[in-house]
# Entry
Amino acid sequence: MPPVENDTGKKELKSQIQELIDANQVMVFSKSYCPYCIKVKDLFKELKVECNVVELDLIDNGTNYQEMLLEMTGQRTVPNVFINKKHIGGLDKTMQAHNDGSLQQLLNGENENYDYDLIVIGGGSGGLACSKEAATLGKKVMVLDYVVPTPKGTTWGLGGTCVNVGCIPKKLMHQTALLGTAMQDARKFGWEFDETVKHNWETMKTAVNNYIGSLNWGYRVALRDKNVNYVNAYAEFVEPHKIKATNKRGKETFYTAAKFVLATGERPRYLGIPGDKEHCITSDDLFSLPYCPGKTLVVGASYVALECGGFLAGLGLDVTVMVRSILLRGFDQDMANRAGEHMGEHGVKFIRKYVPTKIEQLEAGTPGRLRVTAKSTETDEIIEGEYNTVLIAVGRDACTDKIGLDKAGVKVNPKNGKIPVNDEEQTNVPHVYAIGDILEGKWELTPVAIQAGKLLARRLYKGSTIKCDYINVPTTVFTPQEYGSCGLSEEKAIELYGQENLEVYHSLFWPLEFTVPGRDNNKCYAKIICNKLDNDRVIGFHYLGPNAGEVTQGFGVAMKCGATKEQLDITIGIHPTCAEIFTTMDVTKSSGGDITQAGC
Ligand code: FAD
Ligand code: NAP
# Structure
């Protein structure tokens, strides 16, 4: 094509270029051999952003394009990059925008004037981590947190479930129970104390709650230090980019933001039977209960139920767990049953295959007296029992139904209220993200919510591409005999790989600390599941014994690195410990060999 000399030709070329800029989210004018252009194109490829490229050396009128681009942008060189119609510049300017996070903002079309760059709804594990990270990266951030009181009126401070009514008080109360056992052991080790040992609920509750209070305060200070605007109000969408915040006095304020992160967590589910909300408590009430719960019925058989039932029994209370079907659904059942068996041997009663149908108050008080009617899940049989406290722990519902998601167009799974997201925690609405317990099909654990929140902020505002890895997440159930696991349960491994392709190594063991007191001989248990098709890689790790969290964390790292059975075998153990069992396991489950531990 001849050089554009007349005004009409120039006008045509200009509008041609402008059309390209207007029609493409990313438009790059490039030369196919230019190394700087290659770098820019690679960056967009890495960011998985479609970019439209015109290679000026491969078209007839490339020089004219370059002259026109000079006229339009003041830049003649390539690459010449445009995002959402805005001229960015060459490689240096593009990389700079990538590093300071503004590239991502431009890609997301954030050119409008909003009150905030980011509003995070929910100040729990995920929300706090995300908002602090975003503010550290220079963004204007607001986090809203509001606790709707339980039917019993219990409420708490900033920090969400983990700090106030989850991991922290649970582990401290579990520790209280372990100390009780340690005191019994202590006499066997020669400690002499005459007084009758008894536990004072009020003292424990006050100490635990004082500690939680200090954490609540610490979170407030951290938000202030990082310039995150914390508002203690209930948030709900009124428009896709606008929320209404209602504080405890009912005052409504409206805020807008370019982006939103939903981190509203879950709350305990009730049974929906007569008397449950009036007379029962949930884990949201238990940790700050002003009086000792006394004889307790725990309804449910998962994490929360077994952990709470376990520590209450460890404090010396009469505890019964009512199980609808199995223990710890989703976990390795061999391990779950061993954890349950240990609880049974240490005083916890189990009523299997029953569900409550009615709760009646026989006597008010602190605690009062309740009558529980329950029916069998298999027969017509009805049973009744009297308890001081009924703790309902039958799962948790995502807090997504009253936050105006329809106003923002965010889809939820109508069956469970959970929010589906892509592997970047983005909902179906591009400027709305979700993290933590409300996510569909993800782990409901504090470190998972924190990791997802932090990485999300870095992807949004730092140009990072690192995503939260939800595979091989280590976890521990703090039952009286703790159960740590990472990777697949035996059932799931069989389903995925077939029994014939797996080798399961296992062993009972007797922690040295238990030998002198003479308790729980060969009751602790270790098991690994290896994939024969993949070099005997460890795909399931299971440990039932003391300090399960501490033991499992390290093996979680090993599994991230792809540990194989051979690598465990050549690792030298630390003696005398419980964890060393994983370096010496040689009995396979398929052999049926003896797995009791005889000596050290
Ligand atoms: P949350 O921490 O629940 O935070 C959500 C926050 O948002 C809450 O403060 C809520 O009040 C607030 N909120 C909700 N709606 C709104 C709204 N519309 N406006 C403003 N604020 C709102 N995990 C572990 O890793 N280890 C454990 O040992 C462990 N133990 C647990 C024990 C118990 C008894 C329970 C119940 C949970 C336990 N968990 C444990 C799970 C862990 O607590 C959660 O996975 C974690 O807290 C989830 O974080 P999140 O940010 O998703 O939500
Ligand atoms: P969950 O895992 O959803 O388990 C619910 C339990 O309640 C199951 O045993 C279920 O029995 C039973 N149940 C449900 N409906 C019932 C009914 N109508 N009557 C009787 N029983 C009923 O719930 P969760 O224990 O509350 O735990 C929630 C999440 O918190 C977990 O997924 C976990 O990730 C997290 N968490 C973590 C830790 C930790 O890391 N240590 C501790 C606590 C909680 P079926 O099996 O019959 O359905």
Remarks:
- The chain has a mean pLDDT of 95.
- The pocket of NAP (ligand 2) is lined by residues 271, 299-305, 307, 324-326, 329, 355, 393-396, 443-445, 475-478 (CB under 6 Å).
- DSSP finds 19 helices and 26 strands in the chain.
- The two ends are 87 Å apart (CA to CA).
